[in-house]
Write a structure and sequence with these properties.
Layout: H1 4-7, H2 16-25, H3 31-39, H4 41-55, H5 70-91, H6 95-105, H7 112-125, H8 128-139, E1 147-148, E2 164-168, E3 173-177, E4 185-188, E5 197-206, E6 209-219, E7 232-236, E8 249-253, E9 256-259, E10 269-270, E11 277-278, H9 287-318, H10 341-383, H11 391-394, H12 398-429, H13 442-448, H14 458-477, H15 485-496, H16 509-533, H17 542-565, H18 568-596, H19 598-603, H20 609-627, H21 631-636, H22 642-645, H23 656-666, E12 673-675, E13 685-688, H24 690-695
Length: 697
């Protein structure tokens, strides 16, 4: 512990709290109103109420989060998960409240996959009878489960999964088996030490024929002893780059039998009377759960990035380095780092991206919910006819679902990549202190990073987007009249291709959106020419497909951001000045993206070389200057409590250096060890006061 004379020391001149006060005073952004516009007053009130409950619980104290090793962190996470469930029952939390409380704790927990993929899969892919059998017990945490798809040898290629589920006609059961080491389920969240059940994705085998991967509910541990069942080998896969409060696990099955009812059968099944496979009425329906998960990732990406941007911008407003070379002689103090354009050009486009991703995520979820309503309505209409429906009658919205699936693939890839790479930019913008765990960025980045791989590897997903766009382009060329946003922009491009584009990207927001649509359409027809006319192999076009998917997804983000700006609620709730500022953020995001992708915009004919030059030298730099005074207020609007950020550098009150020193000096258990440093001595630890230290926490 520090002596009294150390505790009297303060940082040298202007204090961080004073600098942040000055930053907030120079901006007219109505922070509270902007927060309510982003999240709603109801959501913010819920956050405050839940935060008070969590902070009052000793188990959620975060003071040792950055010091504990993996085993200690997992034990703490398990204790927190149990208490969370108890609080949910005690306070009768809704699913939204439970998920928000999990987000406030800000670490993956041992119940994470149970509360998400396990329950969602049982609910969405189980029959009413299976809901009685599995879902109710899972919702009561009697069955604690996980979703076992990825294998040691297969991740993205789900069709290549090696685990088998063989139908036994004699006793109406399935035998699940891992025929090879590479068939071991791997990376399965909540499986390592926590789950007693798993939804296992396995190749359905009937009379020696494979019908592809299907979901099976399998008990993996004894309900009383929690030991693995016979012929089941299960455990934790070990330490990881991040995500170490989650027990990602492995699973091997040795001819394990499960009853007929354990194959989730809402969409497909095995008829126990005929022993025949009953296929789903529409193959597109299996996209439903994955589309929801990917849409959720898009929705969350803005907030994920905003957390890093909040920390980096607040610290850049406090941190002072060097003097401005062109400053007046009277102004001899060091310059705030945020005043340097090299810092602004790294952080402010990311600030703009947080809003772009947020509005895109909201649009994505609205589209998903619209599709769900339409499909429910379609089923209801057919039900009133009193006859058996055809697949076409039952699922006329599956074209929309296919479009939604493609959109979710592309946006999941781009949004999670933008967030992950942006967090690293934020960390580096914090200088040396960004490398400290106390910055709050490093661990957040490490825990978020697997998002770029799970639910579809980001590079692999771009192939699905390209496949859909090529299919849409062929449809448009054939004169098919089906209409959605994709076919609309492709038709617009074809109608004007010979005339050329004349987009005023520096003067009109609508033309910025049109230029992004033009570029995406151009790349679509170029890829189609390479594939259909020139007969290039699929593999040779993978880089083109990645560029095409990126271009189309960037168009969707720009389009969604622009549409959000046109809403009457923005003008009425935020006022003219803040709405104008949001337009500037839109232009910064779009023009900064255009500048980075300049070659494609130019080659497609969407813009001229002169427009690219002006975007770089005039528009973007001017926007940085205009947005800079409002940057601290804009990150404040994301409404991250200090307890959630758990960051010395991102403190709302600006006491950066005081907090860094407090954590290092007073909270660090390593400082409770007195070691023997001499090489000829066999003694390592001379004095261990860690227990005394912990008792004071």
């Amino acid at each position: 512990m520090a002596p009294p004379w150390v505790k009297k020391l303060t940082p040298s001149g202007p204090q961080g709290s004073e600098l942040l006060e000055q930053e907030r005073a120079q901006s007219n952004v109505p922070v509270k109103k902007l927060s309510e516009f982003l999240f709603s007053k109801q959501v913010l009130e819920r956050q405050g109420r839940l935060l008070d409950i969590l902070k009052a619980e000793k188990v959620f104290n975060k003071s040792q989060n950055y010091f504990d090793g993996r085993e200690a962190r997992f034990q703490t996470a398990l204790a927190r998960a149990k208490r969370m469930r108890q609080l949910a029952v005690q306070h009768r939390w809704s699913q939204d409240e439970y998920m928000m409380a999990s987000e406030l704790i800000s670490e993956p927990g041992p119940y994470g996959l149970h509360a998400s993929m396990f329950l969602i899969t049982l609910r969405d892919q189980g029959t009413p009878e299976q809901h009685e059998l599995f879902l109710k017990k899972a919702e009561n945490y009697e069955f604690i489960g996980c979703y076992a798809q990825t294998e040691l040898g297969h991740g993205s290629n789900v069709r290549g999964l090696e685990t088998t589920a063989t139908w036994n006609a004699d006793d109406k059961t399935f035998t699940l088996h891992s025929p090879h080491l590479t068939a071991s389920k791997w990376w399965i969240g909540s499986m390592g030490r926590t789950a007693n059940h798993a939804v296992v994705m396995a190749q359905l085998m009937i009379d020696g024929k494979s019908y592809g991967p299907h979901p099976f509910v399998v008990q993996i541990r004894d309900m009383k002893t929690h030991e693995p069942l016979e012929n089941i080998h299960v455990g934790d896969i070990g330490p990881k780059f991040g995500y170490n409060t989650m027990d990602n696990g492995f699973l091997l099955l040795n001819h394990v039998k499960v009853p007929h009812a354990h194959m989730l059968a809402k969409f497909s099944s095995v008829d126990p009377k005929t022993n025949k496979y009953v296929k789903p009425a529409s193959a597109s329906l299996v996209y439903g759960t994955l589309t929801w998960v990917r849409s959720t990732i898009v929705l969350q990406s803005g907030g994920v990035l905003a957390r890093g941007v909040t920390i980096a911008i607040r610290y850049a407003a406090i941190r002072r380095q060097f003097q401005d070379r062109d400053a007046k002689e009277s102004d001899v103090g060091e310059n705030q780092v945020l005043n340097y354009t090299m810092v602004q050009v790294r952080l402010l486009p990311l600030l703009a991206a947080t809003f772009a991703l947020h509005f895109t995520g909201r649009g994505m979820m609205a589209l998903y919910q619209e599709n769900q309503r339409k499909m429910a309505g379609d089923v209801g209409k057919v039900a009133h006819t009193g006859r058996g429906p055809s697949p076409e009658e039952l699922f006329p919205s599956t074209d929309l679902l296919a479009d939604l699936h493609s959109t979710s693939c592309g946006l999941k890839a781009l949004a999670s990549t933008t967030a992950a790479e942006g967090l690293e930019v934020c960390r580096r913008a914090c200088g040396g202190h960004g490398y400290s765990s106390f910055s709050g960025i490093g661990s957040w980045y490490a825990d978020y990073l697997p998002t770029t791989t799970w639910e579809g590897d980001n590079y692999m997903l771009t192939q699905q987007v390209a496949r859909y766009l090529l299919k849409s382009a062929r449809s448009v060329l054939k004169g098919n009249l089906s209409e959605n946003d994709t076919t609309r922009i492709l038709r617009t491009f074809l109608s004007r291709r010979d005339i050329g584009a004349a987009f005023d990207v520096l003067g009109r927001d609508e033309d910025i959106v049109a230029a992004f649509a033009w570029r995406a359409s151009f790349l679509t027809f170029e890829a189609l020419k390479h594939r259909d006319e020139e007969k290039n192999s699929w593999n040779s076009l993978l880089v083109d497909f990645w560029r095409l998917s990126t271009a189309h997804s960037q168009y969707l983000i720009v389009k969604n951001f622009h549409e959000a700006l046109q809403s009457e609620s923005m003008q009425s709730e935020l006022g003219a000045e803040t709405t104008t500022l949001m337009h500037k953020l839109f232009r910064l995001f779009a023009l900064h993206t255009l500048e980075r992708e300049a070659s494609e915009f130019f080659s497609s004919g969407a813009v001229t070389v002169r427009q690219i030059q002006l975007a770089r030298t005039k528009a973007v730099m001017k926007l940085l200057e205009e947005i800079r005074p409002h940057s601290v207020s804009l990150v404040d609007a994301w409404h991250f409590p200090d307890w959630v950020l758990d960051s010395s550098l991102g403190r709302h009150d600006g006491k950066v250096y005081e907090d860094l020193f407090e954590r290092a000096s007073e909270l660090n258990p390593l400082n409770a060890l007195t070691i023997d440093p001499y090489p000829n001595s066999e003694v390592l630890i001379k004095k261990d006061e860690r227990e005394k230290f912990r008792s004071k926490l």
